[in-house]
Amino acid sequence: QKEVEQDPGPLSVPEGAIVSLNCTYSNSAFQYFMWYRQYSRKGPELLMYTYSSGNKEDGRFTAQVDKSSKYISLFIRDSQPSDSATYLCAMNGGTSYGKLTFGQGTILTVHP
Amino acid sequence: GAVVSQHPSWVICKSGTSVKIECRSLDFQATTMFWYRQFPKQSLMLMATSNEGSKATYEQGVEKDKFLINHASLTLSTLTVTSAHPEDSSFYICSAEGGSGKRNTEAFFGQGTRLTVV
Description:
The complex is a heterodimer of chains A (112) and B (118).
Chain A: E1 4-6, E2 11-14, E3 19-25, E4 32-38, E5 45-51, E6 54-58, E7 61-66, E8 71-76, E9 85-92, E10 101-102, E11 106-111
Parallel strand pairs in A: 2-11
Antiparallel strand pairs in A: 1-3, 3-8, 4-5, 4-9, 6-7, 7-8, 9-10, 9-11
Chain B: E1 4-7, E2 10-13, E3 19-25, E4 32-38, E5 44-51, E6 57-58, E7 67-73, E8 76-81, E9 90-97, E10 108-109, E11 113-117
Parallel strand pairs in B: 2-11
Antiparallel strand pairs in B: 1-3, 3-8, 4-5, 4-9, 5-6, 7-8, 9-10, 9-11
């Protein structure tokens, strides 16, 4: 069993839709939870990071962490075609911000 | 945000040759750098962690003699794929952490290097 599970999709939604992306994990030592966006053949860029359980909002993006269920989510409101990318969840135990365990990534397409 | 530059962005090499990939932090000192590998439609897998001036720490299953990592300065780490074979073809990505302020809460990724071994 992988430490982090993420549905690879692909996910296709119309412009303006609310997108929900999710990951589950098995390692209870994970404390920091991140969402990265990766365009084709590019390195990932950090969208959101959350420490422990709770919600965090940044513009159209909301990240949720439920440590009791070992489940994290990213919501994208009013999705735009420019949001089309691969979204990766990542997490670590907090000893090093760069030592991350990634999910497989979900391919998202937002069509006009 | 901080900038991490990776070079080259793509490379094609013959089987049996060695390839060097550079990872530079352009505007901050990276105390630690990380090397990841990503196969098509798969996740990023951590290969190794490198700290400036010391030997890299490799993840289980990664051959240290095949993937040589050097972190000679606070702004440069290199990954050398030795005696490359077609199965080494992949997307290699580095990340760097360090500095102060916001940079202490995230690692910054390079743009990746697509290696094709023919």
